[in-house]
Design goal:
heterodimer; A: mainly alpha; globular; B: mainly alpha; ABC transporter involved in vitamin B12 uptake, BtuC; 76% helix
Chain lengths: 348, 316
């Protein structure tokens, strides 16, 4: 009953989001059918667009994994934003300043970016454990600190003075992650993302530490009394989550960019929230959830290019989905009636 | 040494303190809002988005009505509506407060740009809209006092409103029935329920007030000194308010001081932009100082708690 209820509720949330976006498009567009067609079916129009979806889902997989892990442990840190951004900056620095053979270069960069991400991820956790601060508050502030620090690093040491806009020098070709399918943006980074999915799934569901994470998240009191070192869980999960996000920044930069030009922090960490929720904080379903959001994104980009509806429509869809999926008592009345009906049938 | 000189020079300027109040205003209003919802037991993460939507609505309504005060009312109404949506999801549909807040922030950051483009055809700022500003006030007697006049007179009307609201919120919690109910509901909803306080309604009211105050902060941003809306113009002030609110721990006066600390850093940052410190370090300074202040505060609370426990143990 519960599983069925979850699915029905999920479908209803999707239906509301779709209905709302269709209504908005009809209300504002001169050519609503083109907009709707591109939004929902655009990515299927060509091989290139379809694999764009996979490529766009890569950073979302990383942040979805990172936030899912943090949520699973019952914490609420948004530091993944800083980790991903700084991971990108580290990548830019190493891809410009160091020289290495092609196979080794990306691997080393990924490891260092992940280490830096883990280090940053530990800050809100350490502050929480030692000073009892709220990790959400400190992580939100730290995101700005690391963002400005990244901008400083790039403008001071890596900038291309001739570019005219904010951009670093070009990366060395040895640091690029090659395309998996020629002619598309689908790159090797996707495999790294899937590897991260497998590792995190294993960590959360097949190890003792994973068990401790799950207990700490679902019942913190019980975790404490049963002798789980909750401080260790808080710190380690956020270090791992930070490392995953840092790795995501590296993969995204090496797979999709030739120079660093993130003038604003990309919103991947915030998108990670909806990925984590859609996937039920389970690493296994993260690629699927990321694919879904990336699909809508690519569709929306096509829509904004080919019609008069702007791609910010996605934020509205995203918000409506999050709101209704996490609303525990959304459709509770329906559930109750179903249960009552069943119970009555049982009596007869 | 140069930098120290710059800082000292800045500290001797009355205009610096004037700017401090100006920068503190939106954070102060939002801090008060955050405080009221937090005391009722709901943490309002949607402040950032609420402020952004209010700033946007204020500009649009004032441009179309050509009346700054109607625009202001629009901004406040927008804050009220957004916080009621949040309240509906949290209180009625049992959603997680943090996640619903994040959802509303996502909605605000994209939705404002979406509608801005519909109205003006631009995505960056509302430059083509002829929106209005709310007035500044000169205080009759005070403006003639030498230094104090330059610091305290001539501020935006909402800056004065914010300072008055500090007293109002302090009074609300200390001496009114509603304030007492809000505190009771926040501290122990079950106990409040048993003595007949309508828990859910009190929480609704607290969130609504927090939305109204945040709406005023939004109006200050877009109808204060700048007079236009630009995408993402709240720049994390809603999140800063969460930190200053935590430092204040329910005391409106401390909340004001914490907001002024932020205003101090922000206005110092503005003054030091011409010095030889890299711009980005200046920009990150307010955030670092708020983190340090917040962490120190939390550490102190923890230390006092431990000390009390030790004393209690020794007493036995």
């Amino acid at each position: 009953m519960n599983k069925k209820f979850t699915i029905v509720r999920l479908l209803c949330a999707f239906a509301i989001a779709v209905a709302l976006s269709v209504c908005i498009i009809f209300a504002i567009s001169e050519d609503p059918l083109t907009a709707i067609y591109n939004l929902f079916l655009g990515p299927f129009q060509s091989k290139r667009h379809f694999f764009d979806v996979f490529a766009s889902s890569v950073p979302l997989i990383f942040t979805g994994l990172a936030l899912g892990l943090v949520f699973k442990s019952g914490n609420f840190s948004m530091i993944a934003d800083a980790c991903l951004y700084t991971g990108g900056v580290v990548t830019a620095a190493l891809a410009i300043k160091t020289a290495m053979p092609a196979g080794l270069h990306p691997i080393l960069i990924m490891l260092i970016a992940a280490a830096v991400g883990g280090l940053i991820g530990s800050i809100p956790a350490l502050l929480k454990v030692y000073f009892h601060t709220n990790e959400l508050v400190t992580s939100l502030m730290l995101n700005y600190v690391f963002f400005y620090f990244g901008i400083y690093t790039v403008t001071k040491y890596l900038a291309d003075r001739e570019a005219g806009t904010f951009a670093s020098l070009k990366y060395q070709p040895t640091a690029a992650l090659g395309a998996l399918i020629p002619g598309t943006k689908f790159h090797v980074g996707y495999l790294v993302a899937i590897l991260a999915v497998v590792l995190l799934y294993f960590l959360v569901f097949k190890t003792k530490f994973g068990y401790e994470i799950r207990i700490s998240g679902s019942n913190p009191q019980f975790a404490k009394y049963s002798g789980i070192n909750t401080s260790k869980v808080i710190i380690l999960t956020q270090v791992i989550a930070g490392a995953v996000a840092g790795l995501g920044g590296a993969v995204e930069q090496m797979g999709m960019y030739q120079r660093f030009n993130w003038q604003d922090s990309p919103s991947y960490a915030w998108d990670g929230v909806i990925i984590a929720i859609l996937s039920g904080n389970n690493p296994k379903t993260v690629p699927l959830a990321a694919f879904f959001l990336a699909y809508v994104r690519v569709g929306a980009d096509l829509m904004s290019r080919r019609s008069d509806v702007q791609n910010e429509l996605v934020s509205i869809i995203q918000a409506v989905l999050i709101l209704f999926i996490t609303a525990e008592r959304f459709m509770a009345g329906w559930k109750q009636r179903q249960e009552a009906k069943k119970a009555l049938e049982g009596e007869v | 040494m140069n930098v120290l000189q710059d800082i000292l020079n800045t500290l001797s300027l009355p205009e610096f303190y004037f700017a401090m109040f100006r920068s503190a205003t939106p954070v102060l209003l939002t801090t008060l809002g955050a405080m009221i919802s937090s005391r009722s037991g709901t943490s309002n993460i949607a402040l950032e988005g609420t402020m952004l939507i209010s700033a946007f609505v204020g500009v649009v309504v004032s441009a179309f009505s050509q009346n700054a005060w109607i625009g202001f009312l629009g901004a406040v109404a927008a804050g009220f509506i957004v916080s009621n949506i949040l309240a509906y999801f949290i209180l009625k549909l049992n959603s997680n407060a943090v996640i619903s807040g994040i959802a509303l922030n996502t909605f605000a950051s994209g939705g404002t740009i979406f509608v801005l483009y519909l109205i003006t055809g631009e995505k960056g700022a509302s430059t083509s809209l002829e929106s209005l500003k709310l007035p500044s006030l000169t205080l009759p007697v005070i403006k003639d006092i030498p230094v104090i006049g330059a610091v305290l007179s001539g501020h935006h009307v909402l800056t004065y409103a914010a300072l008055i609201l500090v007293a109002a919120v302090w009074y609300l919690f200390k001496h009114t029935r509603l304030g007492m109910h809000i505190r009771a509901v926040g501290e122990s909803p079950d106990a409040a329920e048993t003595v007949g306080i309508p828990v859910r309604r009190v929480k609704y009211i607290a969130l609504s007030i927090s939305g109204i105050l945040t709406g005023m902060a939004g109006a200050f941003l877009s109808m204060g000194y700048v007079g236009l809306f630009s995408a993402g113009m709240t720049a994390g002030r809603g999140y800063i308010a969460l930190a200053t609110q935590a430092i204040a721990a329910g005391n409106a006066v401390v909340g004001m001081l914490a907001s002024l600390l932020f205003g101090f850093c922000q206005s110092m940052a503005n003054y030091l932009q011409s010095s030889n410190i890299p711009l980005q370090f200046i920009q990150m300074m307010p955030y670092i100082i708020i983190i340090i202040a917040y962490t120190t505060y939390c550490a102190m609370v923890e230390y006092n708690k431990k000390k009390k426990q030790m004393l209690a143990a020794a007493g036995k």
